[in-house]
Amino acid sequence: MRSSINRPPTPDGDEEPEQELTLQEIINIKLIESGEKEKLKELLRERLIECGWRDEMKALCRAFTKKKGRNNVTVDDLVHVITPKGRASIPDSVKAELLQQIRSFLVSAAI
């Protein structure tokens, strides 16, 4: 007679399997909990205003609205058209400064 095979117990249908958090999710949680995410957003906002990026995006929005007609443009239209241009036109110096701030935070938080 053979003995039964050793198997782990069958999970109950009620229990949800635990999900492992990704490194990106862990970092995001730490940034939020520490309040650092808000500081980084404010720094980004300041730098984009200083370099004229915000005014450039306003001008693009106005030009698009004028071209299509004020009553024919939705916010979704603007977001769809302007977002790729906006992301591509962020100055490298602003990206580098923000990245350095994030790295400093990660070192200090020992992640």
Molecular structure report:
The chain has 111 residues and is mainly alpha-helical. The protein has helices at 23-34, 36-50, 53-68, 75-88, 92-109. The longest helix has 18 residues, at 92-109. The chain starts with 22 loop residues before the first helix and ends with a helix.
Strand-residue fraction? under 5%
* Global Rg: 24 Å
Category by helix and strand content: mainly alpha
Mean pLDDT: 88
Helix content: 55-70%
Largest sheet entry: none
User: So what's the overall shape?
Assistant: flat
Report the strand count.
0
Provide the low-confidence segments as ranges.
none
State the end-to-end distance: 54 Å
Q: What is the tally of helical segments?
A: 5
Pattern of helices and strands = HHHHH
What key attributes describe this structure?
5 helices; 68% helix; 0% strand; 111 residues; mainly alpha
Helices, strands, pairings?
Layout: H1 23-34, H2 36-50, H3 53-68, H4 75-88, H5 92-109
Produce a short descriptive summary.
By secondary structure, the chain is mostly helical.
